[in-house]
Amino acid sequence: MNLVDATERVDEKHLKVIIIGDSLVGKSSFVESFINGKIRRTTTGVDFAFKIVKCQEQVVKLQLWDINGQLERCSPIRKLYYKDASACVVIFDVTQYKTFDSAIKWRKNVETLSNVSSLPCLLLANKVDLQSHSVTDEEIEERCNQNNFIGWGKISAQDRTNIDETMQFLVEKALISNGRLDSDVGILLQAESIK
User: Fold this and answer.
1) Residue 13 CA: distances (Å) to CA of 6, 16, 82, 143
2) Could you cite one Gene Ontology molecular function of this protein (predicted)?
3) What is the rounded CA–CA span in Å between residue 153 and residue 189?
4) Which H, E and C letters describe the chain, residue by residue?
5) From residue 50, how far is each of 22, 36, 70 by CA, in Å?
6) By CB neighbour count within 10 A (0-12 exposed, 13-18 middle, 19+ buried), where does 117 fall?
7) Which CATH architecture has domain 6-194?
8) Is residue 113 within 8 Å of residue 79, measured between CB atoms?
9) Residue 137 has pLDDT above 90, yes or no
10) Are 129 and 161 a contacting pair, CB within 8 Å?
11) What CA–CA distance (Å, rounded) separates 71 from 121?
């Protein structure tokens, strides 16, 4: 994906992407790393970010909603945050198994509150730059397949590992799912290649 010149934005597509997962898994750092190439503090409530990208010759304006990681709180408000979402990223901390378990709850929460079971959701294992992984690739693959994720990836918001590649994959899948990209063009990144 490339940043684009404002003169190319005449026929841009818009995608709302919600970023969810437990507190302290690195959602805000993921968004900031994608937008600005650096990481930052935690989010209280919800935060918004925008980025214009180019995807297979189409200009896409991404609206990223970084939603706090307290699943039990604020469900009525969360429903408003999920409204009109085009895609979803569920992030967990690969060093904290409980956040991996929670990722499935987050996925189900999106399906329930958005009333859209076909919303493209990508599962991301963050903090792969750290040594002590408590979740195996096989476990991630199995849960990904069992819970209707479009794919999964291993990322590090800290050192930017696979940040752009996973977002490219998600944007292409979301555009196809929303009928804004010809599926015959094909996905540049397959789920297996973003691991």
Assistant:
1) 13, 10, 19, 31
2) GTP binding
3) 11
4) CCCCCHHHCCCCEEEEEEEECCCCCCHHHHHHHHHHCCCCCCCCCEEEEEEEEEECCEEEEEEEEEECCCCCCCHHHHHHHHCCCCEEEEEEECCCHHHHHHHHHHHHHHHHHHCCCCCCEEEEEECCCCCCCCCCHHHHHHHHHHCCCCEEEECECCCCECHHHHHHHHHHHHHHHCCCCCHHHCCCCCHHHHC
5) 22, 11, 23
6) exposed
7) 3-Layer(aba) Sandwich (3.40)
8) yes
9) yes
10) yes
11) 17
pLDDT at 40 over 70: no
What type of residue is 111?
Answer: E
112: its two tokens:
């329930």
Task: Supply the pTM of this predicted model.
Answer: 0.85
Per-domain boundaries in the chain:
6-194
